[in-house]
Alpha/beta hydrolase (Pseudomonas synxantha), 317 residues
Amino acid sequence: MPLDPDLEGFLELAQMGRLTGKSQPMHTLSVEQARREFEQTSAILDPSPPGSVAVTELTVTARDGHVLPARLYRAPGTAQLPAIVYIHGGGYVVGSLDSHDSICRRLAASGQYAVFAPAYRLAPEAGFPTAVNDTLDAANWLAEQAGNLQLDSRRITVAGDSVGATLATVLAITAVKTPQQLAFKPWAQLLFYPVTDTSRQRNSHRQYAEDYLLETATLEWFYQHYCPHAQQRLDWRVSPLLAEGLTALAPAYISLAQYDPLYDEGQAYAQLLEASGTAVTLQVQSGLTHDFLRMNGITSAVAGIYAEVLSWLEEQR
């Protein structure tokens, strides 16, 4: 299927900005510049997220004493709810609670689920495995505080996009591989265009290397900041596709973008989960690129994706 026409127009404008020198590829910027530009895209991609959702600011203390910000999103007037732990993407280098605020609002707006969004420390200031440890600590904190927050600790879904999805897979695998490290067993997984193998490139890395929002060179830039040593990329907590001896995990909903350098490794990870006995629902979003979940203001196709996700979660009850 060709590119979504609205998204194609947006990408053409972005390309024009490069030709006129108004913007540059992320991997050519400093870390500080890249973070600023990424944050600024949020208001363009989804300028009008649901405003009625109640947002509570929280803090989580990590194992080394570092205090991490977090947020809890829920529709007003809701009682005890199942929870979605939503972990933001950004290549471990960019991204924040603010950049992915619209996603959390849209998942919480129906009133069916509360959304817990934890922050984690970014690279290069904090390299591997800090993001993994921060995410585990935040997830365990949520399980401990579920009753106080009026959340159902028996139904916690782990979710995320891009490397946020990678961190969600870490939680799901940890729950089975080393269950003593996680205080709950995930109810389900929502994995949007996950990074599953940083150790090699596949055909989609070459086919969609440029001009489709996320660039292959930018991926490498991210990985160099987070995993400066090649051996780190072979760790399953960075490349879950390399996890060995997997048994059945929580049911997984995997949503990939057709025009994404990560497409092939996403397909490969879905196959690995199926081989492990995990129930997998794989959706390929035709005509869309990486980061589509933040694009409600660009293309009308995104609203239907959220509806499908929430419908799938209800089927897991």
In short: The beta strands are 54-61, 67-74, 81-87, 114-118, 151-161, 188-192, 252-259, 280-289.
